[in-house]
Amino acid sequence: MFGSLAEKMNEAFKKFKNKGKLTAADVKAGMREIKLALLEADVNFKVVKEFVSAVTEKAVGEQVLESLVPAQQIVKIVHEELIAIMGEKNEKLLVNPKPPTVIMMVGLQGSGKTTHTGKLAKMLKKQGKRPLLVACDVYRPAAIKQLQVVGESVGVPVFSIENEKDPVKIASESLKAAQRGANDVVLIDTAGRLHIDEVLMGELESIKTKVEPTEILLVIDSMTGQDAVNVAQSFNELLSISGVILTKLDGDTRGGAALSVRHITGKPIKFIGVGEKLDDLEPFYPDRMASRILGMGDVLSLIEKAQEAFDEKKAVELEKKLRESSFSLQDYLEQFKQIKNMGSLEQIMGMIPGMKPGALKDAKIDEKQIGRTEAIILSMTMAERDDPSIINSSRKKRIAAGSGTSVEEVNRLLKQYEQTKQMMKQFTGMGRKGKLAKKLGMFGF
Predict the structure, then answer these.
(1) Dihedral sign of CA atoms 75, 251, 253, 341 in order
(2) Neighbours of 21 (CB within 10 A)
(3) What are the average pLDDT values for consecutive 10-residue runs of the chain, which has 445 residues?
(4) 169 CB neighbour count, 10 Å cutoff
């Protein structure tokens, strides 16, 4: 996420870090590099101009230039200004005091609108809500079927009317269906187009007038950069959107949309899509995103992911086993399974403070390695998992053959297991640090 931008920003900061004292000319030269980095990331020119002006004005102040650590002061200012242009704070979904809360999902075709409607439904269901998905895209072939498949995957009902071609009527009838089914959130998946046109906007305005949505969320593809900002501006002018969902932030996105949309439209980014799975939707926190861009990591999001993925009861049992030196390969396997629930390794590592921006750009993290580890352990008998010391050469050959791996890979796993066992044992009994380590469960690497 923002790998290229983060790398270039940190290169720009080197112009400050290599000097003990800074002059106004030094600041100007460094800000020129930051300006170029932002423009290359496809950030709106007006946003870049205002951002650079605000940072420069604060950076050439006497307090910064006379500071013993001026470079750190400038990084702090840049961090604060990045947060400011992205919206200061996390904006939560509005809730209708009289259910149902109606959320109208809009966007161009191909932006990921239908999938993210399902992702949002799944997130709301986890929060104890009873969402209803509504199929109002009556034009795109198989659009209704796609929403039904998504709905089935997330365990949320889908409302549609067979052979009905009027999306306004479908949206209106869905509210009655929500009352009958005691659904407290209605998510309306509207039709998209390849481009903005009068027919699309007229239809969306009619739905808006009929159902009076609590939220109108615009789904836009972050990889389209400056075009995403133009789309957001057009939809906002005609519909007065209440928020934005940025998709594909896990791809090779340059970051322009995330840094421009809020500033240009005045409407907050409420969620970001960070992967293809239906769990890959996160609330948008400007401060956390600014930290990621500057290579400061995102510990809070990492902990939240860990808390969602890890079973607290199992964590307590694990700590007990480590203290009693009874941590088995079966326990090791459980750790790997829970790590998989947190998302891709790239996502996890990108949240770790101190991880150099761009460090993973050319790295090939083998996600299949976890699968091979599982296969090796599952090819063992329970006796072998409980006491790996009994695994001799003939057993290793049998395990390798059963898992489709090699004896070398089996040996490597056993060595990693022993190292991990010792490392995890050290972290237990370390008070808060131990608890955090236990929650993150990241010591299986």
Answers:
(1) negative
(2) 10
(3) 73 73 80 88 87 87 65 83 88 91 92 93 94 92 90 94 91 94 94 83 92 94 80 90 88 68 89 87 88 66 57 62 70 72 60 51 56 88 90 94 92 86 60 43 39
(4) 14
Give the number of other CB atoms < 10 A from CB of residue 58. 18
